[in-house]
Design brief:
heterodimer; A: mainly beta; B: 114 residues; mainly beta; four-stranded antiparallel sheet; globular
Chain lengths: 114, 114
């Protein structure tokens, strides 16, 4: 089983739609969580952190469910510019001698259509 | 912009030749990482460094070596390139934040091994 699993999509939605992505993680001791965005042929970029109480940044809302070990990202009023691949990222509990490596999901591809 | 550059940005080489990729950062970050990204696999950690001359292996380190003789430079070497090492290579640095440690990526190097 992969440590971080995402539905690869693709999700094709019309402009203005609301779309949600889910991600599950296997390490129950994971400490912190993030969503990254990656545009075609570009590097991944941090979109937002995910807090236990849930958090919002404009049209984007992130939720964490520790009991079920999943993270979600909701995008409201989708724009053409939201077209990208969204990566779910988990920071597991640091172990002795480790570099607190991040674990990346394979990504969910979103295309927003005019 | 975390001040990370990678060189070269694109490279085509032949099987059996040595290849060195360079990652350069300008902000004195201690931790640096090398990833490869392939369709269906997402980002996979090759090697990382936690200081000058301090490096360790990631999950896909076979066929790769690294060196860090200065804080600002982290080199990835393919001693004898193979076609299976055709990939996009990303360098990253670690930044500590309120939500936990995150990583910022360089622009990537597209490597093709013929």
């Amino acid at each position: 089983r992969k440590e971080v699993e995402q539905d690869p999509g693709p999700f094709n939605v019309p402009e203005g739609a609301t779309v949600a992505f889910n991600c599950t993680y296997s390490n129950s001791a994971s400490q912190s969580f993030f969503w990254y965005r990656q545009d075609c042929r570009k590097e991944p970029k941090l979109l937002m952190s995910v807090y236990s109480s849930g958090n919002e940044d404009g049209r984007f809302t992130a939720q964490l469910n520790r009991a079920s070990q999943y993270i979600s990202l909701l995008i409201r009023d989708s724009k053409l510019s939201d077209s990208a691949t969204y990566l779910c990222v988990v920071n597991p509990r640091a172990q002795s001698g480790s570099a607190r490596q991040l674990t990346f999901g394979s990504g969910t591809q979103l295309t927003v259509l005019p | 912009d975390a001040g990370i550059t990678q060189s070269p940005r694109h490279k085509v080489t032949e099987t059996g030749t040595p290849v060195t990729l360079r990652c350069h950062q300008t902000e004195n970050h201690r931790y640096m990482y090398w990833y490869r990204q392939d369709p269906g696999h997402g980002l996979r950690l090759i090697h990382y460094s936690y200081g000058v001359k301090d490096t360790d292996k990631g999950e896909v380190s076979d066929g790769y070596s690294v060196s860090r003789s200065k804080t600002e430079d982290f080199l990835l070497t393919l001693e004898s390139a193979t076609s299976s090492q055709t990939s996009v290579y990303f360098c990253a640095i670690r930044i500590s934040g309120g939500a936990g440690d995150t990583q910022y990526f360089g622009p990537g190097t597209r490597l093709t091994v013929l």
